[in-house]
Specification:
CATH superfamily of the largest domain: ABC transporter type 1, transmembrane domain
Radius of gyration: 36 Å
Largest sheet: 6 strands, mixed
CATH architecture of the largest domain: Up-down Bundle
Strand order of the largest sheet: 6-7-8-3-9-10
CATH class of the largest domain: Mainly Alpha
CATH topology of the largest domain: ABC transporter transmembrane region fold
Length: 604
């Protein structure tokens, strides 16, 4: 959207208005009818003054009064209908816009969200869309109404008295100039306000989601200060905008109503000279006031339009952001029944063209039902390697296949339906345990749900809760322990029944007791499924058919735990540092000491 065209976003909204064109047409008719009634009012007043008062006709006065009552009653009904119709259209259009924005965002890959703050994205859907809604609901109808007033009043005053019309139009040039100059400033300031508001919302959301960390480090005062600064910046920008808009309103009001004084002065002279009747002067003054009010309102609309323009620009930037990972034009279906054979063939990967390569020539084959574990130092590429399988990212070179089909050729929904992911820190949705369990399979029966919970070792603690499966878990599952959240996550995947599993350090953050329960649940989950395990704890990978050792994006060794411990210096170092330094090498046959139990690691 070009910076010089703050109104351009209205053209972007036009296609969204088409489904509601009938409602809009009726709203337009009612706006024009209401405006026509408003324009007729000065004419009625002229007749009232010139005919009823000057002629002393009581009957005519009664007729005019009744006519005005009827006229205003019709106008009230018309205004009600127009207000409802425009509100209805604006609500529908903005609801569609918010749905489309959410749809555009939810289809973006994880990398998109890692580069942006969630609070800022939420602000776009809330406050920015609200500004656009204000223009649709109030601004555009007012624009049409005031433009009709302006054109109609100009035509009528020109017909009534061309000389006085020229006096009235003196106010137009300074009004237009003030609107153009101050309107640009309002837009710049308003864009800054929305950015600062997004910062404040993002900051608050981050603090609330990490409240335990904030409180454990006693950083409440510091966070309060940071949020206060963000709010203060927003307030100061809002005050600057208020000054700019007040200047715009004040300038326009002075020039517009200054012209009315000139009309009153010149018109009074004409009445005294007998060239103009008092009724015509009053009607002319009413039209002049209408013109002044229309010009003032249009200038205010220009300021509002400038403000909404910045908000709309940010919304459409998100809507226009290309989806980096989309379904192929002609998707290939996965074989049925799916076996679960996974292959990485010469896979290279980097997150962006200007960033270093993360994976170098990865070759890996997993037969159906295999369990392969990935170990390596932080940054070795373990999580990246696993993320390529469900296409959270696409390979830079090479291919990842499932049963011989390149994952890039499969529809994303079908591909990801075949893969279950148990992350290191599962974050549950605010709601009930039942809702979280059914997330992956909404049509599951209660019996199926309970069976999955039993297999995941979750049913026992769920049954002990007062509301059982309808118990609320709180935001991000904070009312449950880490082990309980993990077991619910496992039950959720069990209910989904995928062919392929990715376990991303699924027990690395648990105590020994919770780990034992989770490990038992994981073993049930892994039965008959091709499983890729990312692990930092020995107990998670001891039963893997193969362990792959990654270093700087390459597979430097692979084998069983005993084989690697005997020959791989890197694996031995990882084992001693990350699993348990007190546990001696399995090949040496030494027993684990008591310190092993303290760390929760098990001897090989």
């Amino acid at each position: 959207m070009a910076k010089t065209r703050p109104y351009a976003f209205l053209t972007r909204l036009t296609p969204r208005l088409r489904p509601y064109r009938t409602l809009l047409a009726w709203a337009m008719v009612l706006i024009l009818v209401g405006s026509a009634i408003g324009l007729a009012f000065p004419l009625v007043i002229r007749e009232l003054l010139d005919a009823a008062f000057l002629a002393g006709d009581q009957a005519l006065l009664n007729q005019v009064a009744l006519f005005l009552v009827g006229l205003f009653l019709v106008q009230a009904v018309v205004n009600f209908g127009q207000s409802y119709l425009t509100a209805s259209v604006s609500e529908r259009v903005i609801a569609d816009l918010r749905r489309d924005l959410f749809d555009a965002l939810i289809r973006q890959p994880p990398a998109f969200f890692s580069e942006r703050r969630v609070g800022e994205l939420s602000s776009r859907a809330a406050s920015d869309a609200g500004l656009v809604q204000g223009i649709l609901r109030f601004g555009v109808p007012e624009l049409i109404r005031q433009a009709t007033f302006l054109v109609g009043a100009l035509i009528l005053v020109t017909i009534t008295h061309p000389r006085l019309t020229l006096v009235t139009l003196i106010a137009v040039p300074p009004t237009v100039l003030a609107g153009w100059l101050l309107g640009r400033r309002v837009r710049r300031i308003s864009t800054g306000i929305q950015d600062r508001l997004a910062d404040a919302v993002s900051r608050a959301e981050q603090v609330f989601t990490q409240i335990r960390t904030v409180q454990s480090f006693t950083r409440e005062d510091w966070e309060k200060e940071q949020f206060g600064e963000a709010v203060t910046d927003t307030r100061d920008a809002g005050l600057r905008r208020a000054v700019a808009r007040a200047l715009l309103t004040g300038t326009v009001t002075f020039t517009a109503f200054g012209a009315i004084v000139l009309v009153l002065w010149e018109g009074g002279r004409l009445v005294l000279e007998g060239a103009l009747t008092p009724g015509t002067l009053v009607a002319f003054l009413l039209y002049a006031v209408t013109i002044a009010g229309a010009v003032t309102s249009l200038a205010g609309f220009w300021g509002n339009l400038q403000e909404a323009s910045g908000a709309a620009k940010r919304i459409f930037e998100l809507l226009d952001h290309p989806v980096e990972l989309e379904d192929p034009p002609r998707p290939r279906p996965l074989p049925r029944p799916l076996q679960g054979q996974v292959r990485y063939q010469g896979v290279h990967f980097r997150y962006a063209p200007d960033l270093p390569v993360v994976l170098h020539g990865i070759d890996l084959e997993m037969a159906p039902g295999d369990t392969v574990a990935l170990v390596g130092s932080s940054g070795a590429g373990k999580s990246t390697l696993a993320s390529l399988l469900p296409r959270f990212y696409d390979v830079t070179a090479g291919a990842v296949t499932i049963d011989g089909v390149d994952v890039r050729q499969v529809a994303l929904a079908e591909l990801r339906a075949a893969i279950g992911l148990v992350p290191q820190e599962p974050l549950l949705f605010a709601g009930t345990i039942r809702e979280n369990l059914l997330y992956g399979r909404p049509d599951a029966t209660h019996q199926e749900l309970e069976r999955a919970a039993r297999d995941a070792k979750a049913h026992e603690f769920i049954a002990a809760l007062p509301d059982r499966y309808d118990a609320l878990v709180g935001e991000r599952g904070v009312t449950l322990s880490a082990g309980q959240r993990q077991r619910i996550a496992i039950a959720r995947v069990l209910l989904k029944a995928p062919t392929i599993l990715i376990l991303d350090e699924a027990s690395s953050a648990l105590d020994a007791e919770s780990e034992a329960l989770v490990q038992d649940a994981l073993e049930r989950l892994m039965v008959g499924r091709t499983t890729l395990v990312i692990a930092h704890r020995l107990s998670t990978i001891l039963r893997a058919e193969r362990i792959l050792v990654l270093d700087q994006g390459e597979i430097v060794d692979q084998g069983s735990h005993g084989e690697l411990l005997a020959r791989s210096e890197l694996y031995g170092r990882l084992y001693r540092r990350q699993f348990d330094e007190a546990v001696t090498a399995a090949g040496a046959g030494a027993a684990a000491g008591s310190s092993s139990a303290g760390t929760g690691a098990k001897a090989p």
